[in-house]
Design goal:
The chain has helices at about 5-10, 20-25, 45-50, 60-65; strands spanning about 40, 45. It is mainly alpha-helical and about 80 residues long.
């Protein structure tokens, strides 16, 4: 699916700046150095804005496998390490 300027504005609420539209439509999405390229199928948002990295393919279980134990709010230096 090609992300158009109009779709970007409708979803994000502003004009794309710099290379944002190119990153949404990057043909190298998921390759080394391009994990933040593309459009997140989970959030329906630019991947570089939502934070769901692409690791070679769309993996719905990615967040559960990569999640840190506890939340960062609960993290205190010296604990959980």
């Amino acid at each position: 699916m090609k992300i158009t300027r109009e779709k970007f504005i409708a979803v994000v609420g502003r004009e794309p700046i710099m290379d944002e539209l190119d990153r949404c439509n990057c043909p190298m999405e998921g390759e080394v150095g391009h994990f933040q390229c593309g459009w997140c199928p989970k959030c329906q948002y630019p991947r570089f804005m939502c934070g769901h990295l692409m690791c070679g393919h769309v993996d719905p279980e990615y967040e559960s496998r990569m999640a840190l134990p506890g939340s960062l709010d609960d993290y205190q230096e010296g604990e959980n390490s």
